[in-house]
Design a protein that fits this description.
Blueprint lengths: L1 E6 L11 H13 L4 E6 L9 H21 L4 E8 L5 H13 L3 E6 L4 H7 L2 H12 L3 E4 L2 H10 L4 E3 L6 H5 L12 E7 L8 H13 L3 E7 L5 H13 L6 E4 L4 H8 L4 E4 L10 H9 L2 E5 L4 H5 L5 E2 L4 H13 L3 H15 L2 H17 L6
Helix pairs in contact: 2-3, 3-5, 8-9, 8-13, 11-14
């Protein structure tokens, strides 16, 4: 039996890979254990004036023709859509509609965040198309647990929680029994996209705040800087806060090299205010290594972490700093470290999440019940 998978895939000519692309690659790895998978890649607009729209429209036409050709294969039983709704809902509606014409089962996977807000603020047409995609789906996968209740409140559809997950190699590098004291060097870290909506400048100010409180602090930043202007602002912030001697930035993409660079850090600071923040891959990776997260209450951060003690309600460097100080002063660092490692082990590892996905496929294809 074959599966046709549509989604955002890594670009051959681009060394960078996004969180959504990482998630799709992992999903494909799971599906390929049981099924033969054909891939239908999402079409992107190009950054050339005048020819942009023409190129995009032609690309969509080719996409739909290719989909129809692939769906004509009788061995393909399931069409899996890695969906982003919002502006993409119009394209996803057409793709799903064609799949139903060919009598295929549809798995609609809702990636990233912002779905509830988009639906509540969306036009009547948007709400209709969104509901139609849900109606035509045999199964809806949601990345955030809060989405399950939302989807079930607007449509009667089989819906399962399908969070981002990590490979076992991250857990194998976790450091245990760390006794962090006030006079130790406090190692902060962030990895992921270096951009304004991730509030990297706030992390730098957290370093300065802790130094002002007489703590010895270092900060390692790993990731690609997307905007030169923001990169310059980060550097200016480092200089103005007088923390140049304790901040390191490096662009690391290889998974194993990254693990070896960050596994001994203490706190993963994640003050993201990205409007489409979903289930962060890097957040889950940090937790797997036992790096205690201090996060914004954005996207699915709170439900992933599962402990409000580690969630900052405001975007102020002092609040993030005080959360870290409190953990150290109360000698609770090892408690939180053990807690987050176990949370990943019990919820966000490949075998657990992958088994749930394959069980969902069995249910919609063969009618077999899914294990609770």
């Amino acid at each position: 039996m074959n599966v046709l998978f549509y989604g955002n895939m890594p670009q051959e000519k681009d060394g960078h890979i996004t969180g959504a692309q990482i998630g799709n690659v992992k999903t494909l790895e799971i599906l390929k254990k049981k099924y033969k998978v054909r891939i239908l890649k999402r079409i992107y607009r190009i950054k050339f004036p005048f020819v942009d729209y023409f190129h995009y429209i032609c690309g969509l036409f080719v996409l739909f023709v290719k989909e129809v050709f692939l769906l004509s294969d009788k061995d393909i039983k399931v069409f899996h859509v890695s969906g982003f709704y919002m502006q993409q809902i119009y394209i996803e509606f057409v793709l799903v509609h064609f799949a139903k014409i060919f009598n295929k089962k549809v798995v609609y996977e809702m990636r990233a965040g912002g779905a509830i807000d988009a639906y509540n603020k969306g036009s009547s047409l948007y709400k209709y198309l969104f509901r139609e995609v849900l109606k035509k789906s045999s199964c809806v996968l949601v990345q955030g647990f809060v989405y399950k209740k939302f989807i079930e409140s607007i449509e009667s559809v089989y819906c399962i929680y399908y969070p981002n997950f990590i490979r076992r190699m991250w857990l194998e590098k976790a450091v245990h029994n760390v006794d962090l004291k006030e006079d130790d060097v406090i190692k902060l870290v962030y990895w992921g996209r270096i951009s304004e909506d991730k509030n990297i400048d706030l992390i730098i100010k957290v370093v300065a705040y802790l130094q002002a409180k007489k703590y010895n602090v270092t900060l390692d930043l790993y990731g690609r800087i997307y905007c030169e202007k923001y990169g310059a602002y980060i550097y200016d912030t480092i200089l103005s806060e007088n923390v140049l001697n304790c901040v390191l930035h490096e662009a690391i993409y290889e998974e194993e090299k990254l693990i070896n660079s960050v596994f001994d850090k203490h706190f993963y600071v994640f003050p993201s205010n990205n409007k489409r923040e979903g289930h962060s891959n890097s957040l889950t990776e940090a937790m797997a290594l036992g790096i205690v997260p201090v996060c914004s209450d954005d996207g699915f951060n709170a439900s992933v972490v599962g402990n409000r003690d580690l969630i900052a309600t405001n975007y102020t460097f002092s609040e993030y700093g005080e959360i870290i100080i409190k953990i150290i002063k109360e000698n609770k660092y090892e408690y939180y470290r053990a807690y987050i490692i176990n949370r990943v082990k019990n919820n966000f590892v490949e075998n657990i999440v992958g088994d749930n996905l394959l069980c969902a496929y069995k249910k919609i294809i063969y009618g077999e019940e899914v294990a609770p």
